[in-house]
Model the fold of this input.
Amino acid sequence: MDSVYRKVKGFLLQKQPCEANPLNASILQANSSLNSTGNFGSINVRLPKIDLPTFDGDTTKWLTFRDRFVAMIDSSADIPSILKLQYLLSSLKSEAALLFEHTTLTADNYATTWAALLKRYDNPRMLVRDYYRTLHHLPAMHEGSVDELAQLVDEFTRHVNGLRKLKEPVDNWDTPLTTLLFFKLDSSTILAWEKHSSASPKDKYSDLIDFLQDRIRILRSSQTLAK
Done:
């Protein structure tokens, strides 16, 4: 354990003072402009702290967590395995954290813990089912408020984008997706869409989303002006 401690301590000290860990604020040296002698001057730019991604077992959020964790931590050759495991365990919440509650913090356990997490959640077949099921069960609007509309549109597009990332042919699903979304919209929004798209031969999902995003922006802008 002493050798592991010294290794970790040495790694952290080596990173000082620019960064206490790979995710904390760092100093970026940038050559930005010529000075009077024709040489480039060096400017220190302090970057903001980047928080670790978290994962609580919600399968519709797995892809985002996996990709960000790999990019920030797993793929880094500069981070010792014992620190990667520490970052991984601290990123897991709720159900996902319980799976590894008794994991010992050792370098050898990082690879096995990450592999176990992938085995549990990195299942495209299961993910497609979960995205599609959750998409169908998104709650319909009741109040007709702009916040309710924005939340519905954000969640709907998030799940469709997840299906697209899993190679589902969502770009060919205009009728299924628009019809499903119509079931969840309030009557005034549907009426506004009917007026907007009356000349269109069919409902296109991308057009509907663009219309809804514009409607959200206009409604929020009008609320601001009315204050």
Summary: Residues 15-22, 24-43 have pLDDT under 50 and may be disordered. The beta strands are 27-34, 40-46. The first strand starts at residue 27 and ends at 34.
